[in-house]
Structures are given as C-alpha cells and as structure tokens.
Automatic annotation (TrEMBL):
It is found in: Cytoplasm. PANTHER family: BIFUNCTIONAL PROTEIN GLMU, NUCLEOTIDYL TRANSFERASE. GO terms for cellular component: cytoplasm. Its cofactor is Mg(2+). InterPro entries: GlmU-like, GlmU_C_LbH, Hexapep, Nucleotide-diphossugar_trans, Trimer_LpxA-like_sf. In the N-terminal section; belongs to the N-acetylglucosamine-1-phosphate uridyltransferase family. In the C-terminal section; belongs to the transferase hexapeptide repeat family. The keyword Transport does not apply. Catalyzes the last two sequential reactions in the de novo biosynthetic pathway for UDP-N-acetylglucosamine (UDP-GlcNAc). The C-terminal domain catalyzes the transfer of acetyl group from acetyl coenzyme A to glucosamine-1-phosphate (GlcN-1-P) to produce N-acetylglucosamine-1-phosphate (GlcNAc-1-P), which is converted into UDP-GlcNAc by the transfer of uridine 5-monophosphate (from uridine 5-triphosphate), a reaction catalyzed by the N-terminal domain. It comes from the Bacteria. This is UDP-N-acetylglucosamine diphosphorylase. One of its GO terms (molecular function) is UDP-N-acetylglucosamine diphosphorylase activity. It comes from Merdimmobilis hominis.
Amino acid sequence: MSNKQAVLIFADSDAFAPILFSPSVAWVVDTCMTGGISSLCIFADEIPDTVSLPDTADIFTGDHAVHHLANWLENHRGDDILILDGSMPLVTPASIADSALHCTNGGDLLSRMQSLELKAHTAADFLRALTPNTYSTIRTDSSRARNEITTQLRQRILSDLLNQGVEIPCFDGILIGRNVSVGAGTTILPGTILRKNVTIGEQCTIGPNTLIEDSTIGEGTTLNAVQCYRSTIGNHVTVGPFCHIRPNSVIRDGVHIGDFVEIKNSDIGAHTHISHLTYVGDSDVGERVNFGCGVATANYDGKKKYRCKIGNHAFIGCNTNLVAPVTIGENGYTAAGSTITDDVPDEALAIARARQQNKPFYNKKIR
C-alpha cells in the first residue's frame, strides 16, 4: 500500500480478557507500536479502571465514542485503515496486514459507517457490520480459547528469549508477560513468573518457583523461590529460598538474603547479610551489616509506622527486636535476645534482656 497506514481496533468485552497478565487488547496495541503504525485508534464499549493503554493512541469510549470515531475517520480520509479485533492478541508485527479483518481507506469506511445511520453503537456491532472477513485467528471469547492463546503466546515469548541467549532448560511452569526484558546468559528455571514491567540483567539465575512483578534485577543475581514486588535488586545478590521482597525495597550489590526472610519498604546496603528467619520493615540498613537469626523490626504501633536506621558494619544479634523508631550506630552491636527501644551509639554494645539466674537443685525440689 502506498498510502499512510492507520489501525482501528475495536475492543469489546472479550478484548479485556487477561492473557499472560495483560488484557488482550494491550498485546494488539504493542504489536501495532512495534510494527511501526504511527496512527492508532481504539474504539471500546468500556475500559476497566485497571487497564492502562498508551497515550499515543486515540481512545474513544462512552456516549460520544461514535461521534469521535467519525471525526477520526474524517481526519484519515485518504489513509489505509486496517481494522483489528482487540480480542485477537496473536497478531504479530509481520502479520498485521494479514490479520486485519478489513482494509479500506478512511473515507470509504466513514461512508459505510454513516450508512449504518449510527445504529451500531458497540464495538461488537461495528465489527459485524464493517468487517466482511471471517475470523481466521482465535478470539478470547471462551476459557478454552484463552488457554490456547496463552499457550501459543507463551511459546512465542520463551522461544524469542532463547534466541536472545537466555537459558531456559525446561519450559514447564514458566509464565512471562509483556514488558519483560531478560539479559543474555541468564537462566530461567521452572515455576518462574515474570509479570508487568520486569528487567533482569545478564548471567542471573531466576527460579525455581520465583515470582517477580514490576521490579529490576541486576547482573549475576540469584533468586530461588522468591516473591518480589515493585523493588530493585542489585548485582551479584543472592536471595532465597522462601523470601518475600515487598514493594519499595532496594537490595544493593552483593547482599545475601537467606531462607524465610521478609523485606518491606527498606533499603539494604551493599554486602549486608540477612541469613534466615528475619523481618526487616521500613528500615535503612548500611553496608556490611550482619543480621542474626530471628531478628525483627517492630515498625508498627497499631496506628503509625516508623523506621529503623542501622549503620555500616553493625551486628544485630539473634532474636533481637528493634522497636522503631530506633537507630543502631556504625559498628554497633546488639546482644542476642535483646529488645532495643533506645538508640545505640557507634561502636557500642546494647544488652536489653533479663539477667539469667540459676537456681541450684531446683529440679530436685519439685520432683
């Protein structure tokens, strides 16, 4: 085609069915953007509040959608208009033209639309009235169809990653959504789920049984049986197994986080070790800090949340409770079993536990 191309996507309720964590229509929009389509229009009956579509697209919905669509077609009177169905997410950049349900110029399409006397108001109505072609691609209109679409799209995504140098020894249980980037040499193991905006560097090991959402992972990092949400993890970090990285956390380079650890809204300094059975919430942790087993930050008093600050090279003994707000100075030390309610100065040892008393021959007295 010699004319400028534009795409008109009709999005009925099936177009918002979730396919690999995103609505079907979002996959169609991504394909159009990747395929170099400069003008894109989406006509939808209703867009759910949870759905975000690109600002570059003209989106028409609601009572005046038909009027806006007519104006859009008038502005594209001389352009070639490809009509796509938002519930057909298997379209690829190379197959946009072949996948179009109909192709015409904007003027002809506007005339056909006006001949309907604007009786067709829904996306489904317009699809039936304006597209003479039969469906040659699966639509997201049933559970079985959505399963088949997901299977094909998943296979396509994983195959593309293999071609980019990502190691995937087995596809079993791996689900990867839109806007996911994985560096060459990284290994993805079974049971891994990557969704929303995820960036993973090179030479990492992700999985098994790991979920990452809206997060950035550096290079050479290992995540084993981890759930990570809206956080940043640096280079050469090891996390897991069985760890929960909650939103707004920053795990800096060289950190080691062991089994059964939860991090929430905290900044963990480089080369810090949090080896096992620990909760760090609302905390700013320095470099090369060591957390013993069973440490907990008490950050919530029932009404408000408070932060802890832990200086570089501090040592937090096993089963220490840090009652926020509290600061542990650089090279500060807390004795095992302490409940810390006051700041600990630099280089100081804090002991906050009951003194041990031994009762000689006590057991004989009670037998």
